[in-house]
Amino acid sequence: MVKIRDLMKDDCGTISKAFAEQGWNKPVSQYERYLLEQEEGTREVVVAEYNNHFAGYLTIRWKSDYEPFFSVGIPEIVDLNVLMKYQKNGIATALMDEAERLVSEKCDRIGIGFGLTRDYGAAQRLYVKRGYIPDGLGISQNGKFLTYGDQITIDDDVALYLTKTLIS
Predict the structure, then answer these.
(1) How would you classify residue 161: left for phi > 0, otherwise alpha for psi between -120 and 50, otherwise beta?
(2) What whole-number distance in Å separates Cα of residue 131 and Cα of residue 2?
């Protein structure tokens, strides 16, 4: 059973440890910063539990760092992660449902960006199936839109951004 709730102080170490166990470096300080931003109202953090165990999380930046979203007030889903051992159990879907519900209370659109490598394949399919469409601005890296002839290193900072119109 999936349960969705807000991030709490005790979660910071639990989340960091859970990702470390699968070989991912996600320091406690990252979640302490998320908690502070949640308390300040700049970020919303929702946590998923599966059978009473931490399984994943998602954050919403109410003022996106991505300029095309920021300039028109589109909140952005940032940092959606589900532990590998809990994937394919509807956890990302439950997190996305909650994010869209929360954003629909304040805005009529939501945005998201994702990386272009194979690692993001499941997320790419999920977003398209949920009705997210590309914003039409192409790919960017660290806020710079890429054009023909640009030479880049493909990493997590190369992204495509999408939006979805929400019905409240």
Answers:
(1) beta
(2) 23
Residue 168, pLDDT above cutoff 80 = no
Query: What values do phi and psi take at 71, rounded to 5?
Result: -65, -25
User: pLDDT at residue 61 above 70?
Assistant: yes
Domain range list for the chain: 2-165
CATH of the domain spanning 2-165:
3.40.630.30
Q: Closest by alpha carbon to 79, among 42, 53, 107, 43?
A: 43
**pLDDT tops 90 at residue 19:** yes
pTM for the complete prediction?
A: 0.93
> What is the chain's Cα-based Rg?
16
Report the alpha-carbon distance of residue 111 to residue 59 in Å, rounded.
Answer: 12
